[in-house]
Amino acid sequence: MSAQLLTPLRIERLALEHGMRDTPYVSGRGPEGHPRRTDVPTVIAGVAGALDPDVRPGELVVADRLRTGSVEVALPSAPLLAGELRRAGLTVHVGTIESTDHVVTGEERQSLAAHGSTAVDTESAYLARYLDPRQLAVVRSIVDTADDPLLHPGTLRRGITALRTLRRAAPVLQEWLDACAPRTILRAEPQSFCAGVERAIEIVERALEQHGPPVYVRRQIVHNTHVVAELEQRGAVFVQELDEVPEGATAVLAAHGVAPSVRVQADERRLHVIDATCPLVAKVHQEVRRFTTAGRTVFLIGHAAHEEVVGTRGEAPDEVVVVETVEDARTVKVPDPTQVSYVMQTTLSVEEADVIAGELRTRFPALQAPRRDDICYATSNRQHALRDVAADSDLVLVVGSANSSNSVRLVEVSRAAGAVAHLVEDASDIRLEWLRGVRTIGVSAGASAPAALVDQLIAALTALGDLEVTRRGGVTENVHFTLPREVV
Ligand code: SF4
Predict the structure, then answer these.
(1) What is the whole-number distance in angstroms between the Cα of residue 258 and the centre of ligand 1?
(2) Does the beta carbon of 222 sit less than 6 angstroms from any atom of ligand 1?
(3) Which active-site residues does the annotation give?
(4) Architecture label for domain 195-278
C-alpha cells in the first residue's frame, strides 16, 4: 500500500466505497481513532460541521490547517486537492478544520468561528498526530451549520446530502491515491522574478507607501494574477485606460511599456505618472525611435496583441510593421527594401525569433539589426535552463499566467524538447491525471511569477509522496535596475 484513505465512521466508508477501488479504512471515532499506517501519504475524509456561515450543508471543506486547542499544523496539500474537487463540479472551501472531543454548540461554536476556523470535526487533528502533515490531505463534507445544528429537524436530510457529496468526491480521492508515488523534481534555475518585474512591483509598493491608496496602475503591472491580487489588497487600483483615473491622481505605467500617446493622455489629465516600464523594454522603444528617425521601416518581431508590442509599435505606427511568424517574414512588403531594420519583443522564444530574423535577413540583405539582442537576459536564461530540464522530465509544470508571454514560451520550449508541459497559475491547476506514470517533473516559472508559488506547488506535490528536489541550471542573475526618482 503506497497511500491510504481514512474515514472515521463506517457510514462515511459506505459513502466513499462507491466509485473507489481501494477500500477506505475506518480509523475510529473521536480522539481515540488511529490510522492504519503512519508512514504513507494519507487522505482523511468524512463529515463535519460548518463554522464559517458561508459554508452550507453538502459543501466540502478542504483543510489547509488542522487545529486542536493551541496545536496547529499546516497542510500544503490543500490547493491541489481543492482544485481537483472543484473541477469535479463540487463546491469547495479551503480553511482551518478544528477538531474537538465533543460536539460543539452555541457559544463554543461561535468562539471557534471567531478564531477563524472554517469547520469542526471530532477526529482529523487527532489522527494527524500520528501522520506527517506534509503528506496528509483532509476533506470534510458539511452536515450541520450554526443555523441548523446537529440536534435539529432536518439533520437526517442534511446528513444524506453530505454523504452524497462524499460519494461524488470518491473518484477524485481514488485518483489521489493512484497518483501517490515517490518522484523527482528538477527545478530549473533561474526561474521566477526578473529584475524588471521586481522593480515594477517595488514601484507600486513604494507609491502606495508614499502616496497612500489608491494608487492607479494602467493595466496589470506585470502579467501575473497573484501579484495583481496582492497589490489590489494593498490599495492598488488596476485600470485599462488612463481615462478611468481621476484627474491629478497618481498613476503607474506597467512594466510592458506604453505608446507615447498614453503619456500625452497622462499629461492632459495632469496625472502624477510613475513609469514602471522595464528598462530593457524602454531600450527597444529607443531603437525604434532611432531607426525610424533615420527614415527606416522597422520590423517588430513579436505578437501583435501583446501589450509590449502595442506599446513599442506606438512609437511610430506608420513605420513599424509587426512580424509574427516566418510566413509573415516571407511575405511582408515595405516601401524601400534597402532601408529596413528589425527589433524584437523581449519575451519571445529565442529559437523562433532567430528563424524569423533569419528569413528577414535573407529577403532584405540590407537589414539592420539592433545593437544588442532584444530578447532579454531573463527570457533567454529561463528558456535555456528549462530546455535542459525538459529533456529529462516526464512532465513539465510552468508556473505563470496565461497572458504572460515568457511563461507561455517556457511551455513551448519544453514541448519542443519533447516533454509534456502545462502552464499552471498555482498548485490548484495541477490535474492528478497528468501525474499518472510520471516519476520526474521539471518545474519552472515565468519571469512574472512569484517563487513562493513554486514552493507551494512543490509542497503540494509532496503530499502525494516523497520528493527528491534537485536544482538544475547554473546561471546566476545579478541584474538590478534603479528605481525612478519619483519613488526613491
Ligand atoms: Fe524586463 Fe525581461 Fe523582465 Fe520583461 S522579462 S520585465 S523585459 S527583464
Answers:
(1) 14
(2) no
(3) 308
(4) 3-Layer(aba) Sandwich (3.40)
Q: What is the CATH number of domain 4-179?
A: 3.40.50.1580
The residue-averaged pLDDT of 238-254 equals 97
Contacts of 412 (CB under 8 A, 6+ apart): 349, 352
- For ligand 1, whether the C-beta of 447 sits within 6 Å is yes
3-class SS of residue 89:
coil
Q: Whose CA is nearest to atom 8 of ligand 1?
A: 196
pLDDT digits 0-9 by tens, 111-134:
999 999 999 999 999 999 999 999
pLDDT above 60 (res 307): yes
- Which of 197, 219, 223 for mutating ligand 1's site (highest number of atoms within 8 Å of CB)? 197
- Note the pLDDT tens digit of each residue in 20-43: 999 999 999 999 999 999 999 999
Q: Ligand 1 center to residue 339 CA distance, Å?
A: 29
Please give the DSSP secondary-structure letter assigned to residue 348: S
| Lookup: cell for 365 | 540583405
β-strand 60-68 against 136-144: which pairing, if any?
antiparallel
Percent of the chain with pLDDT over 70: 100
Which sequence spans correspond to the domains of the chain?
4-179, 195-278, 280-363
Return the closest-CA partner of residue 44 out of 87, 69, 12: 12
Ligand 1 atom nearest the C-alpha of 279 is 1
Work out the number of other CB atoms within 10 angstroms of the CB of residue 131: 20
pTM above 0.90, yes or no: yes
Just give the CATH number of 280-363: 3.40.1010.20
Shared fold status for 195-278 and 280-363: no
